[in-house]
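user: Please supply your own:

assistant:
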Amino acid sequence: MKSRRQLLLDSYLGLGSLALADLLATDTASAATPEQPLTPKPQHHAAKAKNCIFLFMEGGVSQMDLFDYKPELIKRAGQQLPTAANTTGEIATFSAAPNRIIPPYWDFKQHGQSGRWMSALLPHLSGVADDLAFIHGVKVDNNNHGPAVYHSLTGNQFPGSASIGAWVTYGLGTENQDLPGFVVMGDRRGATIGGAGVWGNGFLPAAYQGTLFRNGDTPIVDLHRRAQMSPEQQRRELDLLNWMNQRHSAERTNTSELDARIAAYELAFRMQSKAPDLVDLGQESEATKKLYGLDNPASEPFGRQCLLARRMVERGVRFVKLLHGAGGDRWDDHGNIKERLPVHCREIDQPIAGLLKDLKSRGLLDSTLVVWASEMGRTPFDNNLVTDKPGRDHNQYGLAIWMAGGGIKPGATFGETDDFSVRAAQEEIPLRDVHATLLHLLGLNQNRLTYLHAGRYKKLTDIGGRVIKEVLA
């Protein structure tokens, strides 16, 4: 009895084989196999960036208090905000309701040759202002945290889609086969909204999901083999397990998860010799640790993550995602922003600036794309007219994002918000444009990076985005 593949090969003058060859070329696009799904793959086009560090601030960062200087907020503090034009949903409703403009509580100054306006809350990041390229007035598709987080990190506001890191490792594989291609480090205080879905593989093969590293001194559980087990014994056990799994897989279809598990066992075995060196920060000088803020209790947790991220890209890990903010410590400052926002900034300011300086000094910034984002911006007003500790509400129209490193034009700016930092002053910038730009900087064409699922070729940017050439070098 002929197999399905042989039937296609033999059918109607060989046309079936042409169709099959095209499907196989589209679906694999490389020499990757179930046994080695993360084999390095060529870029679609030449690009400087080989790796990506994605810094995600969960909760909705207040752009007008950090990066989006608006003197009009100071001039009209306490007044009613004019109804926000060209907005719908909550922003339109809340801006039309009784409200008061809340000015930034912190001074803004221009920094670097680019003259970048930045808040006094970020003294360290201000020192590397000329390395940053900003995109102002980005719009996400939802004004609520859960869907907005999914949209920011998977391109879709609903669960089940592949995360950015999964898409990148699917498209490029990874250079180091002894470490995961996509690593995630979460906040020590709890899980992010959306949980594992925001670093999951979605409909892509399971091998492309992110690997979660724990916080603290032991980011990888059970990294060392049992004392009574020799490497030879462990290898024999693993070979037997792989033989059984391969036999099981050969008799079935749709074995993506099993194939990923087989590959994961092999990777775990290799990691036992490579990962201890990766996570050993004792190898770093005291000056380097201080650069990342490891000598400060406030910045030490995120500083440790940023330092580990540098060590990962240094060793060929393709995509590293750092998550900051969890539970009551998210950047979701509906009230008392005057006291809450400085706490967030102290935790991330020095570590991120240290990361950029360290990458640059080691010659890694040219080949590493660093992205800073949140799931939304904030409103310039508060609808609570009686509290003496006001905050800011959600704003899906005003997100500020910056990038640095591989292929980015230092000091560039694209987009501008209106006088009150509510929304883009001119043409709207959909989030998919940012995703298209990120892929482009890593050498990936959004229209070629596809995966056939449920009868449709899926892609990170869905209906497609515009590459923002204004921020490219």
